[in-house]
Amino acid sequence: MSVVFAVSGDWALASDGYQWIVQRRAHWKGKVQWRSLSFVHSTKTVLARCLREKGCPLTDAERLLAGLPGTFDLWQEAHPRLLEASLNAKSTRAVQCAVECAAINADEKATR
Predict the structure, then answer these.
(1) E-state strands within the chain
(2) Dihedrals phi, psi of 37, to nearest 5 degrees
(3) Which of 45, 73, 79, 89 would suit a FRET pair with 29, their CA atoms being 20 to 30 Å apart?
(4) Which residues of the chain, if any, have pLDDT below 50?
């Protein structure tokens, strides 16, 4: 599960606690979704290159990159609560999946 921390136009930066994620807004069946395009656990320079190569307008890229430190590790150290929120969301989803799988297994056993 990723946490969006910066949005500019149809572009966003998110993190799953392990890397920065470049996302773009997409419309599908009348709903807005964020599509993950690139995953970066290195430098701000590489992140800027990914934004450029994916077609992010320069003004949006500048807004998204403003204030970011030179590396993901430095950013991660400065934002421990975002990492915690992302990991808690993953744990919650893992529990939900386990409950759903258990229910499916119980239904399959009952129909045998």
Answers:
(1) 3-8, 11-15, 20-28, 31-40
(2) -110, -35
(3) 89
(4) 91-112
